[in-house]
Each structure stands twice: as structure tokens, then as C-alpha cells.
Write a structure and sequence with these properties.
By secondary structure, the protein is an alpha/beta fold. The protein is 35% helix and 17% strand. It is globular, with a radius of gyration of 19 Å. The chain has one domain (3-311): Spore Coat Polysaccharide Biosynthesis Protein SpsA, Chain A (Alpha-Beta Complex). The strands form three sheets. Strands 3-2-1-4-8 form a five-stranded mixed beta sheet.
Amino acid sequence: MESSDIDIVYTWVDRKDASFRANYERSLKTLSSRPSEASVGLHRFTDNDELKYSLRSLEAYGPEFRNVHIVTNGQSPSWLNTACGRVSIVTHEEIFDDKSDLPTFNSNAIELNLHKIPGLSKKFFYFNDDIFLGRAVSINDFITPEGQYVSLDSIPLHSSIHKGSVHDQAYAHTQEIIDGLWGVTHSRLLPAHAPQLYDRDLLRDLEKMFHEEFRETSSHKFRSESDLVLRVLYSYYLLESPEQRNRNLAKRLSFRDCALVRMDYHYWIWLYALCRIYFFRPSFFCLNDELADATRGQRMRICLKKFLQSFFPRPSMFETIA
């Protein structure tokens, strides 16, 4: 497989957009009860220009690729150079079959529909916009002679559908569905916060196999405990299904390979984590913004932007020239 045949897919949103806020407030009012803050918190939709710097990292350190598709609710970053010919904005309307599911604020629902992007390559990488490449990687870091590597963290996959945060319970719900396939319960590890390599045709097959689960998750406008989580389902289908397991290999990632840093209110811990990333240069790192209070988190976000500007100073082809 040539990396030049592979597309890159991002999802992106900016909560400051007036249309987004109006749709968000309108959708909240349709809910029968107020979900948890983890499900609907506006801080999950904050844009710190991560996408700009992730694209810089992709151009600097990524394998050769074909095109970049940015999936949004119709917004487009003000700095995006759509004239470069290798990037496109894809709206949710283009990939959701049932338009009554929209607008959606559920990343799990969006991810289950990424394989419907018009003109998408057969194999594609999915990046969250807060994932960055820290040093050069190649397609051989992801594929084996017969299949692909499945990147796993050292964290056990959450297994209780009754306890934990909304996303943890969704992990457990997805794991129960996988257990039902083989009739065997396994201890599993969380798939790593790294670029995910997907096969569009296999995703279509999984959608047929789990039609009701795909359909239910797509209908959830906000995150739900009963969501189907794509990266968990896909990773363990590759590793455990009779059709796939002999072709694919699990790969445990260390900090040198992949670093996940949650941006909360512990400023000095956050600063130390950024210094470690800058020094060790992991292949991938994820800077996850969990700051619900904009005022308290202001100096953290200033620190984030200075770090990203220092790590990725060179503008990419995807940016307009100021």
C-alpha cells in the first residue's frame, strides 16, 4: 500500500460560531432531561487553533498522503487555504444518512459516519484536531506485511456500564457488544490516542453487521452512555475476529511513542508535561483541553499556544498567507 493513496480525515468545531451556539442551545431544549456536563459541556468544543498546528505537524512529519478532509458542522477555519487543492470541508449533512440526526454534537456519532465522505480513499487516517506528530513517521509504523498494527495504551479499557464518566460507560457498552460476538469476555486495553488507520470498506461491513448500534448512536445528538465507540469496536474487531486476527498485530505504545496530556487546572504539572514532550519528541501526542472555566484556564491556553507555535513554527500549505 502506498501512503500517497491515503487520505487524512479531521473533525473540527468552534464553539464561538453563532450558528453553532444557536443550534446547541436549541438541541439542549429538546432533551427530556439534562445530561451530564461531560456529555454536553461547551468546553469540549473550544478551538485553540489545534487544527492549524496539527496540519503543520502532518506536513512536517507525516507520511506522504493524498488529500485532507475536514469534517465540520458547516464552519470553516478563517485561516484555511482551500485554494491549495488538497483540502476540503465536508459537512455533517454530506455524511449523515438521516438528516433528522442533525445538528449533532456527538463525536461518537460523527466518527461512525466518516466512511461516507464523498471521494474518500479506501484507506484513511483519522486525526482528532488535538493530535500532533512529534517526529517523522512512515506508513510502515502502521501497517504489517499482511494487515496493520493496532496501537494500544497501557490503560485497561473501562468495563462497567453502570459506573464512570459518560465516555467510560460508552467504552464498556462497546466492549459488551464485542464480547457478544465471540461469547468470550477479555481484559482489553484502551486504543491509543494516536492517528487511527481505517479501511472504508471494512467500516461499511461493520455498519451492516451492527446496523442498529450504528443507527442508535447516530441519533444521539450528545454523547451517551450507550454510544458505540468506533476506535474500540474497530481495533478489537481487527484483533479478535476470525476474519482479521491473523493479519493484524497489537502494538503497545510507550510515552516515546505516544503521549496523552490532559489540560486541566494543574498549571505546573501541565508545564512539566509540555517540557517532557518538547524534550522526548514522541511520535504522536494529544493535548486534550478539559478546561471548563475560561477565566481560570486562560494562562493554560496561552501556554498551549506558545508551545505549539514553538514546536511547529513553519506555516503549512493549508494556511492562507497573512
